[in-house]
Design goal:
Elements lengths: L2 H14 L6 H8 L6 H11 L5 E6 L2 E6 L4 H5 L12 H13 L2 E2 H8 L4 H9 L3 E6 L7 E5 L1 H6 L15
Antiparallel strand pairs: 1-2, 3-5, 4-5
Helix pairs in contact: 1-3, 5-7
């Protein structure tokens, strides 16, 4: 397969996929070295630079998406580009988990100052957080962390893309 064919095939794969495709998965499908995938994706990104589409790197993989400025037009198709909003309690709980993971429910409640059972259940149902295991110690409490779906939902490549905390 030529580089041109590989580039076009990668573009077709990330367009057709329901979720972000990692460089490893793309390489596996194409029978290529995973180290060659980012350069091919960069070529696809450059080709789409002046168009309505872009390649977005989120959740450890690549997606072909429309640029944000086209959201109002896409909404007119009857396809709203809106996620069901999280409650303030869920948002606060999610932020604590994202910045402090792995973290226990008791640690979250200590930071928030209130119980967080409902928020944790909501976030688990939405698959924005998951159980990472259990902490050593009395009761072996569950440790929580964010999922790849969290990264995709918020358009992050990884946790290093979270904005810095400004504590006042």
């Amino acid at each position: 397969m030529t580089l041109h064919e590989a580039e076009r095939t990668i573009e077709a794969l990330i367009f057709a996929a329901d979720e972000p495709l990692s460089a490893g998965r793309l390489a596996e499908i194409l029978g290529m070295d995973p180290k060659s995938i980012p350069a091919l994706v960069e070529r696809i990104q450059r080709r789409h630079q002046d168009g309505a589409l872009m390649v977005r790197e989120v959740g450890g993989g690549y997606q072909l998406v429309t640029k944000p400025e086209y959201a109002p037009w896409i909404e007119k198709l009857g396809r709203p580009v809106v996620h069901a909003p999280l409650s303030q309690a869920s948002t606060e709980t999610l932020a604590i988990i994202a910045y402090r993971q792995p973290v226990t429910k008791a640690e979250i409640e200590e930071i928030r100052g209130v119980r967080c059972d409902s928020a944790i259940n909501n976030l688990l149902e939405r698959e924005l957080i998951c159980e990472l295991g259990r902490k050593d110690g009395p009761g072996r409490p569950i440790l929580y962390g964010v999922t790849e779906k969290f990264l995709v939902h918020f358009g992050l490549k990884g946790l290093e893309d979270l904005p810095p905390l400004s504590i006042t």
